[in-house]
Amino acid sequence: MRMVDIIDKKRNGHELTDEEIQFFVDGVVNGTIPDYQTSALLMTIYFNNMTDHERATLTLDMMNSGDHLDLSEIPGIKVDKHSTGGVGDKVSLPLAAMVAAVGIPVPMISGRGLGHTGGTLDKLEAIPGYQVEISEQAFIDQVKQEKLAIIGATGNIAPADKKIYALRDVTDTVDSIPLIASSIMSKKIASGTDALVIDVKTGSGAFMKTLPEAEELAHALVEIGKGVGMKCMALISDMNQPLGNKVGNTLEIEETLDVLKGNGPQDLLELVLTLGSHMVVLGGKAKTTDKARKLLEQTIADGSALDRFKAMVVAQGGDGSVIDDYSVMPHAKYQIALPAKTSGYVAQLTADEVGIASMKLGGGRQKADDALDYGVGIELNKKVGDRVEAGESLLTIHANREDVTDIKEMLYDCIEIADEAKPYPMIYKIIE
After folding, report:
1. What share of the chain is helix, strand, coil (3-state, %, to 5)?
2. Are 152 and 111 in contact (CB under 8 A)?
3. What does the radius of gyration of the chain's CA atoms come to, in whole angstroms?
């Protein structure tokens, strides 16, 4: 078998066999296929797509290229959640605690942020002492005992994906549905969970800018999950403006705790409850999403979700006093208001620009090895559809430098005030 023949076949729009896909993945991992041939195949996939069967085969081969986490020691149906990323997206944190409080084990392997999107691990590391890197056995033991753990990737999960993704990044093939879907699902399947709920973002702050693109990706992810026997569903949610009211690592932990105490913003709570209700159904604790939603709401009312979050923090070395004392986390020296220049309604609050502003303050990374300033970020005082008067604060900039003229200019450019405006829907579509 020759790699050039595989490239030729896909270039001419034909379906690759299981053996050809396996040959490709093996060659990527063992280095027998040069980068220029891998890049050529990635580009042919970008232009000619892949069938559902090809996608499932590529996903499984990438998953089998490395370690597979065995969670069989953990009793019950293990349910995970994945988001395609966004600004202010701290959903995993309150969601995992609430689902765990219902009695469903949630073994969550998360990532770090890069660019304008935040990472779950970065947010958790705003809590003093929190360890995102623990051993595989410690991870399993914690989920058995506490029903919940959120950590970084352990072992050598999907090494083929790491090599392929690095080439996608430099060959402009990142935004390929089959390549995105196989990348996400190979890692999730290798992580050993039984069921998966996927939050596909769409809008200015999302990778999929349009609803049709997001819908295509959501269908691809669900089809791959079904193809390998995983319980799987997806929903498409809005990312035209930041989720919740706070963007930044410490700020988003604060908002997570506010949600768990029943004081969180409505858009964030609605998304958490919708995703969570499907996780509870997949986890076998309720037969309908309506009943599941009531169970989740009860975990906030009785404090059990907050207890689960604290138990996780303490188990992973974090300072449990953060639950009641937010001051133990790093905070910015300056809080600077951005006043509205005119009266009206907020018609636009571009998510990716808010995320970039937070990154430029030090709250995100432009390069993978950039150090983070956990205390900085943006706090939204108004969202799309809200009335604002001239001089009233649109948002608060949390900074460790007094001069934020550049940040103010960037934020003014991404905010539009009009005579009328409607809020965005939170959830566009559910795909099961």
Report:
1. 45, 15, 40
2. yes
3. 22
Task: Assess whether 68 carries a catalytic annotation.
Answer: no
Q: What is the mean pLDDT of residues 238-263?
A: 97
Active-site residue, from 78, 187, 201, 231: 187
- Report pLDDT for 113: 63
pLDDT score of 286: 98
Look at residue 114 in the predicted model and tell me its pLDDT: 58
> Could you tell me if 97 and 148 are in contact, meaning their C-beta atoms sit under 8 angstroms apart?
yes
Give yes or no: 183 in active site.
yes
Whether 187 sits among the annotated catalytic residues: the reply is yes
Residue of 283 and 66 predicted with greater confidence:
283
CA distance 229 to 147: 23
**Residue 152 pLDDT greater than 90, yes or no:** no
Average predicted confidence (pLDDT) for the chain: 94
How many angstroms separate the Cα of 357 from the Cα of each of 32, 144, 311, 376?
A: 43, 40, 33, 10
Instruction: Tell me the pTM.
Output: 0.91
Active-site pick, 10, 82, 112, 123: 82
Active-site residue, selected from the candidate residues 168, 188, 201, 308:
168
Helices and strands per DSSP (H, E), number in the chain: 16, 13
Count CB atoms within 10 A of the CB of residue 224. 26
Longest alpha-carbon distance in the chain: 69
For residue 116, give every residue at least 6 positions away whose Cβ sits within 8 Å of its Cβ, in sequence order, or none: 87, 205, 352, 353, 355, 356, 358, 359, 364
The Cα 33–Cα 29 span in angstroms is: 9
Run of H or E residues at 35: helix 35-48
67 is catalytic: no
How far apart (Å, rounded) are the C-alpha atoms in residues 377 and 255? 13
Active site residue 161: yes
Q: Residue 157 — very low, low, confident or very high, per pLDDT cuts 50/70/90?
A: confident
Contact 52, 185 (CB under 8 A): no
| CA separation for the pair 70, 33 (Å, rounded) | 30
